[in-house]
Amino acid sequence: MKIGIMGGTFDPIHLGHLATAEAVREIFVLDEILFIPAARPPHKSAKPVTDSRHRLAMTTLATQSNRFFRVSDIELKRTGLSYTLDTMNELHATFGATTDLFFIIGADSLADLSKWHAARELVTKSHFIATTRPGVDVNFSAVEKFFGAPATEHIHLTTTPGLEISSTDIRDKVRRRRSIKYLVPDAVEDYIRREGLYL
């Protein structure tokens, strides 16, 4: 099997996440996409993050209409910071050696990949799909220089629809009582309103 991994804070999950995941699934002929809300991402450890039960609920609501999408709470069960290597190791153990895992990241994250925890081991063990918007070039030479041969074998570049949607902007709109319709699925919008999130 080929499984795509879509990780993130998902605070909240929005249509940009979903459109990217579906485009990657189709381009790389993946069997499914596994959405994994992060517990305490190292790069956001100093910033407040909405309670995990809300982020998990919103991610579940957002993905339920796509039969190729699944949600995992694997990182929410773990204590401490959420390192991608720990997650991928656990997923490899769960799915077995015959399953290839493809971690989906944005092109901006690709530029910082060398700074991730145990980055070289991570790229050797798993595949990465770096998505970029049409017309945006990615400087891959620095990535190749740092990772060497595994970069060309395990890091894949692709172009996906450029939906300029930001979770930060959505939270700000909710605080200012502005509309978030067409930025998040209707079920997620209803959940945010019902639970009084981001006010």
Salient structural properties:
Rossmann fold, alpha/beta, 41% helix, 199 residues, 17% strand
Structure description:
The chain is α/β, with parallel strands linked by helices and 199 residues long. It has a single domain, classed as HUPs (Rossmann fold, 3-Layer(aba) Sandwich). The protein is built from nine helices and six strands; from the N terminus they run E-H-E-H-E-H-E-H-H-E-H-H-E-H-H. Strands 3-2-1-4-5-6 form a six-stranded parallel sheet, sandwiched between helices. Helix 2 packs antiparallel against helix 9 and helix 3 packs parallel to helix 5. It is globular and about 50 Å long. The mean pLDDT is 92.
Instruction: Kindly provide the name of the CATH class.
Output: Alpha Beta
Mean pLDDT: 92
* Tally of alpha and pi helices: 9
N- and C-termini, Cα separation: 42 Å
Query: Which structural class matches the secondary elements?
Result: alpha/beta
Number of strands: 6
Order of helices and strands: EHEHEHEHHEHHEHH
Our estimate of the beta-strand percent is: 15-25%
Low-confidence stretches: none
CATH H level, superfamily name:
HUPs
Can you tell me the CATH architecture? 3-Layer(aba) Sandwich
Which strand order spans the largest sheet, edge to edge or round the barrel?
A: 3-2-1-4-5-6
